[in-house]
Automatic annotation (TrEMBL):
<dbReference type="InterPro" id="IPR032675">
    <property type="entry name" value="LRR_dom_sf"/>
</dbReference>
<dbReference type="InterPro" id="IPR003591">
    <property type="entry name" value="Leu-rich_rpt_typical-subtyp"/>
</dbReference>
<dbReference type="InterPro" id="IPR001611">
    <property type="entry name" value="Leu-rich_rpt"/>
</dbReference>
<dbReference type="InterPro" id="IPR050541">
    <property type="entry name" value="LRR_TM_domain-containing"/>
</dbReference>
<keyword id="KW-0433">Leucine-rich repeat</keyword>
<dbReference type="GO" id="GO:0005886">
    <property type="term" value="C:plasma membrane"/>
</dbReference>
<dbReference type="InterPro" id="IPR000483">
    <property type="entry name" value="Cys-rich_flank_reg_C"/>
</dbReference>
<protein>
    <recommendedName>
        <fullName>Ig-like domain-containing protein</fullName>
    </recommendedName>
</protein>
<dbReference type="InterPro" id="IPR036179">
    <property type="entry name" value="Ig-like_dom_sf"/>
</dbReference>
<keyword id="KW-0732">Signal</keyword>
<keyword id="KW-1015">Disulfide bond</keyword>
<feature type="domain" description="Ig-like">
    <location>
        <begin position="191"/>
        <end position="263"/>
    </location>
</feature>
<keyword id="KW-0677">Repeat</keyword>
<dbReference type="InterPro" id="IPR007110">
    <property type="entry name" value="Ig-like_dom"/>
</dbReference>
<dbReference type="InterPro" id="IPR000372">
    <property type="entry name" value="LRRNT"/>
</dbReference>
<dbReference type="InterPro" id="IPR013783">
    <property type="entry name" value="Ig-like_fold"/>
</dbReference>
<feature type="signal peptide">
    <location>
        <begin position="1"/>
        <end position="22"/>
    </location>
</feature>
Amino acid sequence: MSATRLSFLLLCLSSILSSSSSACPHRCDCFDRSSRHVIDCSSKDLTEVPRFLPANVTTVSLTANQIGSIPAHTISNLIYLRNLDLGHNRLKDFPWNDLQNLTSLQLLRLDNNELKSIPQNAFSNLKHLSSLRLNNNNNPFACTCYMYWLKHWILNSNIDIPDQDLITCATPNNVENESLVNLTDSNCVRPIVTINIENEDQNERFYEGSLLVLTCEYSGNPQPTVKWRINSKKELALKLTENNSAKMLDNSLKSCVCSTCFY
Protein backbone atom coordinates (compact mmCIF):
# COMPACT_ATOMS: atom_id res chain seq x y z
CA MET A 1 0.00 0.00 0.00
CA SER A 2 1.44 3.37 -1.01
CA ALA A 3 2.19 6.06 1.56
CA THR A 4 -0.29 8.40 -0.17
CA ARG A 5 -3.14 5.85 0.05
CA LEU A 6 -2.31 5.06 3.71
CA SER A 7 -2.35 8.75 4.61
CA PHE A 8 -5.71 9.13 2.87
CA LEU A 9 -7.21 6.20 4.83
CA LEU A 10 -5.90 7.55 8.12
CA LEU A 11 -7.38 10.96 7.32
CA CYS A 12 -10.76 9.38 6.56
CA LEU A 13 -10.66 7.35 9.78
CA SER A 14 -9.78 10.45 11.77
CA SER A 15 -12.69 12.32 10.21
CA ILE A 16 -15.11 9.49 11.02
CA LEU A 17 -13.99 9.30 14.65
CA SER A 18 -14.17 13.06 15.02
CA SER A 19 -17.64 13.13 13.52
CA SER A 20 -18.95 10.31 15.74
CA SER A 21 -17.55 11.91 18.91
CA SER A 22 -19.35 15.19 18.22
CA ALA A 23 -22.51 13.91 16.52
CA CYS A 24 -25.75 15.41 17.74
CA PRO A 25 -28.18 12.84 19.22
CA HIS A 26 -31.35 12.17 17.27
CA ARG A 27 -34.24 14.55 18.09
CA CYS A 28 -31.94 16.89 20.03
CA ASP A 29 -30.58 20.33 19.20
CA CYS A 30 -26.84 20.95 19.47
CA PHE A 31 -24.97 24.23 19.35
CA ASP A 32 -21.99 26.07 20.76
CA ARG A 33 -22.44 29.02 23.07
CA SER A 34 -19.51 30.98 24.52
CA SER A 35 -17.12 28.07 23.96
CA ARG A 36 -19.58 25.66 25.58
CA HIS A 37 -20.98 22.63 23.77
CA VAL A 38 -24.72 22.42 24.45
CA ILE A 39 -27.11 19.53 23.82
CA ASP A 40 -30.77 20.42 24.27
CA CYS A 41 -33.09 17.40 24.41
CA SER A 42 -35.81 19.04 26.47
CA SER A 43 -39.51 18.35 25.83
CA LYS A 44 -38.84 15.61 23.27
CA ASP A 45 -40.96 12.93 24.97
CA LEU A 46 -37.83 10.81 25.46
CA THR A 47 -38.02 7.69 27.61
CA GLU A 48 -34.25 7.24 27.93
CA VAL A 49 -31.07 9.27 27.79
CA PRO A 50 -29.70 9.32 24.22
CA ARG A 51 -26.80 6.96 23.73
CA PHE A 52 -23.26 8.05 22.89
CA LEU A 53 -23.45 11.64 24.06
CA PRO A 54 -20.34 13.50 22.85
CA ALA A 55 -17.62 13.32 25.49
CA ASN A 56 -16.83 17.03 25.13
CA VAL A 57 -20.35 18.24 25.93
CA THR A 58 -20.58 20.83 28.71
CA THR A 59 -24.37 21.31 29.00
CA VAL A 60 -27.09 18.67 28.67
CA SER A 61 -30.77 19.50 29.09
CA LEU A 62 -33.16 16.55 29.30
CA THR A 63 -35.91 18.32 31.19
CA ALA A 64 -39.61 17.66 30.62
CA ASN A 65 -39.33 14.14 29.23
CA GLN A 66 -40.52 10.69 30.33
CA ILE A 67 -37.20 9.21 31.47
CA GLY A 68 -37.74 6.67 34.26
CA SER A 69 -34.26 5.26 34.78
CA ILE A 70 -30.68 5.79 33.67
CA PRO A 71 -28.40 2.73 33.46
CA ALA A 72 -24.99 2.81 35.11
CA HIS A 73 -22.13 4.34 33.08
CA THR A 74 -24.51 6.28 30.83
CA ILE A 75 -23.03 9.65 31.80
CA SER A 76 -19.82 8.65 33.57
CA ASN A 77 -17.62 9.62 30.60
CA LEU A 78 -18.91 13.21 30.38
CA ILE A 79 -15.98 14.61 32.33
CA TYR A 80 -16.38 18.14 30.92
CA LEU A 81 -20.06 18.36 31.84
CA ARG A 82 -20.93 21.50 33.81
CA ASN A 83 -24.72 21.60 33.65
CA LEU A 84 -27.04 18.59 33.78
CA ASP A 85 -30.79 19.17 33.81
CA LEU A 86 -32.98 16.11 34.42
CA GLY A 87 -35.86 17.94 36.07
CA HIS A 88 -39.50 17.09 35.33
CA ASN A 89 -39.01 13.45 34.38
CA ARG A 90 -40.05 10.17 36.00
CA LEU A 91 -36.68 9.16 37.39
CA LYS A 92 -36.79 6.36 39.92
CA ASP A 93 -33.28 5.02 39.32
CA PHE A 94 -30.26 7.24 38.89
CA PRO A 95 -26.61 6.13 38.39
CA TRP A 96 -25.24 7.86 41.48
CA ASN A 97 -21.79 6.34 41.02
CA ASP A 98 -21.52 8.09 37.65
CA LEU A 99 -21.36 11.41 39.50
CA GLN A 100 -17.95 10.49 40.88
CA ASN A 101 -16.43 11.18 37.45
CA LEU A 102 -18.29 14.43 36.80
CA THR A 103 -15.88 16.62 38.74
CA SER A 104 -16.61 19.67 36.54
CA LEU A 105 -20.33 19.63 37.28
CA GLN A 106 -21.69 22.96 38.54
CA LEU A 107 -25.47 22.62 38.12
CA LEU A 108 -27.52 19.48 38.76
CA ARG A 109 -31.31 19.46 38.49
CA LEU A 110 -33.24 16.42 39.71
CA ASP A 111 -36.41 18.18 40.82
CA ASN A 112 -39.88 16.89 39.97
CA ASN A 113 -38.97 13.23 39.61
CA GLU A 114 -39.83 10.05 41.51
CA LEU A 115 -36.65 9.47 43.50
CA LYS A 116 -37.16 7.79 46.88
CA SER A 117 -33.66 8.04 48.30
CA ILE A 118 -30.17 9.38 47.69
CA PRO A 119 -27.13 7.42 48.88
CA GLN A 120 -24.82 9.04 51.38
CA ASN A 121 -21.88 10.92 49.84
CA ALA A 122 -23.56 10.93 46.43
CA PHE A 123 -22.28 14.46 45.82
CA SER A 124 -18.97 14.17 47.66
CA ASN A 125 -16.80 14.31 44.54
CA LEU A 126 -18.58 17.28 42.96
CA LYS A 127 -16.12 19.91 44.15
CA HIS A 128 -17.43 22.59 41.76
CA LEU A 129 -21.14 21.99 42.33
CA SER A 130 -22.79 25.35 43.02
CA SER A 131 -26.50 24.65 42.44
CA LEU A 132 -28.62 21.57 43.19
CA ARG A 133 -32.36 21.17 42.79
CA LEU A 134 -34.25 18.37 44.50
CA ASN A 135 -37.42 20.24 45.35
CA ASN A 136 -41.10 19.55 44.82
CA ASN A 137 -43.18 16.69 46.09
CA ASN A 138 -42.88 14.54 42.98
CA ASN A 139 -39.77 13.04 44.62
CA PRO A 140 -41.44 10.71 47.17
CA PHE A 141 -38.50 10.57 49.56
CA ALA A 142 -38.51 7.83 52.18
CA CYS A 143 -37.28 9.78 55.20
CA THR A 144 -35.88 6.87 57.18
CA CYS A 145 -32.59 6.91 59.05
CA TYR A 146 -30.93 6.27 55.70
CA MET A 147 -31.85 9.79 54.53
CA TYR A 148 -31.02 11.89 57.58
CA TRP A 149 -27.53 12.53 56.23
CA LEU A 150 -29.13 14.57 53.43
CA LYS A 151 -30.89 16.86 55.88
CA HIS A 152 -27.63 17.75 57.63
CA TRP A 153 -25.76 18.05 54.35
CA ILE A 154 -28.32 20.51 52.96
CA LEU A 155 -28.32 22.64 56.11
CA ASN A 156 -24.52 22.81 56.27
CA SER A 157 -23.75 23.11 52.57
CA ASN A 158 -22.68 26.28 50.78
CA ILE A 159 -24.36 25.03 47.61
CA ASP A 160 -27.44 26.87 46.37
CA ILE A 161 -30.36 24.51 47.03
CA PRO A 162 -33.59 26.46 46.37
CA ASP A 163 -36.99 25.69 47.88
CA GLN A 164 -35.59 23.50 50.62
CA ASP A 165 -38.99 23.40 52.32
CA LEU A 166 -40.32 21.65 49.21
CA ILE A 167 -37.93 18.71 49.61
CA THR A 168 -40.54 16.63 51.38
CA CYS A 169 -41.13 13.14 52.71
CA ALA A 170 -43.63 10.58 51.43
CA THR A 171 -42.89 7.92 54.03
CA PRO A 172 -43.00 6.87 56.87
CA ASN A 173 -46.59 7.88 57.54
CA ASN A 174 -45.75 9.95 60.61
CA VAL A 175 -43.67 12.40 58.52
CA GLU A 176 -45.68 12.34 55.30
CA ASN A 177 -45.58 15.71 53.47
CA GLU A 178 -43.17 17.16 56.02
CA SER A 179 -40.06 18.98 54.89
CA LEU A 180 -36.91 16.90 55.20
CA VAL A 181 -34.86 19.80 56.58
CA ASN A 182 -37.46 20.51 59.29
CA LEU A 183 -37.56 16.99 60.71
CA THR A 184 -36.41 16.63 64.28
CA ASP A 185 -33.26 14.59 64.71
CA SER A 186 -34.06 10.95 65.25
CA ASN A 187 -32.35 8.56 67.62
CA CYS A 188 -31.32 6.23 64.84
CA VAL A 189 -29.30 3.25 66.01
CA ARG A 190 -27.80 0.82 63.51
CA PRO A 191 -29.33 -2.67 63.90
CA ILE A 192 -27.26 -5.34 65.64
CA VAL A 193 -28.24 -9.01 65.35
CA THR A 194 -26.58 -11.83 67.30
CA ILE A 195 -27.33 -15.51 67.88
CA ASN A 196 -26.84 -17.08 71.30
CA ILE A 197 -26.76 -20.85 71.83
CA GLU A 198 -28.50 -22.49 74.77
CA ASN A 199 -27.70 -26.20 75.17
CA GLU A 200 -29.31 -28.26 77.92
CA ASP A 201 -26.21 -30.47 78.21
CA GLN A 202 -23.89 -27.47 78.57
CA ASN A 203 -21.32 -28.91 76.15
CA GLU A 204 -20.30 -28.30 72.57
CA ARG A 205 -21.45 -31.67 71.21
CA PHE A 206 -24.95 -32.16 69.93
CA TYR A 207 -26.65 -35.46 69.23
CA GLU A 208 -29.77 -36.40 67.35
CA GLY A 209 -32.77 -35.83 69.56
CA SER A 210 -31.02 -33.41 71.92
CA LEU A 211 -32.47 -29.97 72.54
CA LEU A 212 -30.72 -26.98 71.03
CA VAL A 213 -32.17 -23.51 71.51
CA LEU A 214 -30.84 -20.67 69.40
CA THR A 215 -31.87 -17.22 70.56
CA CYS A 216 -31.74 -14.41 68.06
CA GLU A 217 -31.22 -11.14 69.90
CA TYR A 218 -31.37 -7.81 68.18
CA SER A 219 -31.45 -4.11 68.86
CA GLY A 220 -31.88 -0.95 66.84
CA ASN A 221 -34.01 2.12 66.42
CA PRO A 222 -36.46 2.00 64.71
CA GLN A 223 -37.06 -1.57 65.87
CA PRO A 224 -35.99 -3.94 63.08
CA THR A 225 -37.95 -6.92 61.84
CA VAL A 226 -36.05 -10.19 62.26
CA LYS A 227 -36.45 -13.44 60.33
CA TRP A 228 -34.78 -16.82 60.48
CA ARG A 229 -33.13 -17.97 57.29
CA ILE A 230 -33.12 -21.74 56.83
CA ASN A 231 -31.25 -24.09 54.51
CA SER A 232 -34.19 -24.40 52.15
CA LYS A 233 -33.74 -20.67 51.46
CA LYS A 234 -37.21 -19.99 52.76
CA GLU A 235 -37.81 -17.43 55.47
CA LEU A 236 -39.94 -17.86 58.56
CA ALA A 237 -41.08 -14.78 60.44
CA LEU A 238 -40.80 -14.98 64.22
CA LYS A 239 -42.98 -13.66 66.98
CA LEU A 240 -41.05 -11.14 69.00
CA THR A 241 -40.71 -11.70 72.73
CA GLU A 242 -40.76 -9.08 75.45
CA ASN A 243 -36.98 -9.13 75.85
CA ASN A 244 -36.35 -8.40 72.16
CA SER A 245 -35.45 -11.96 71.29
CA ALA A 246 -37.02 -14.75 69.28
CA LYS A 247 -36.71 -18.51 69.63
CA MET A 248 -37.02 -21.33 67.18
CA LEU A 249 -36.38 -25.07 67.43
CA ASP A 250 -35.42 -26.27 63.97
CA ASN A 251 -32.40 -28.31 62.89
CA SER A 252 -32.46 -26.70 59.44
CA LEU A 253 -31.64 -23.28 60.87
CA LYS A 254 -28.96 -21.40 58.97
CA SER A 255 -28.85 -17.83 60.27
CA CYS A 256 -30.80 -14.98 61.76
CA VAL A 257 -30.99 -11.86 59.62
CA CYS A 258 -32.37 -8.36 59.88
CA SER A 259 -34.83 -8.13 57.01
CA THR A 260 -36.42 -4.73 57.63
CA CYS A 261 -33.95 -2.39 59.23
CA PHE A 262 -35.06 1.09 58.09
CA TYR A 263 -31.47 2.27 58.11
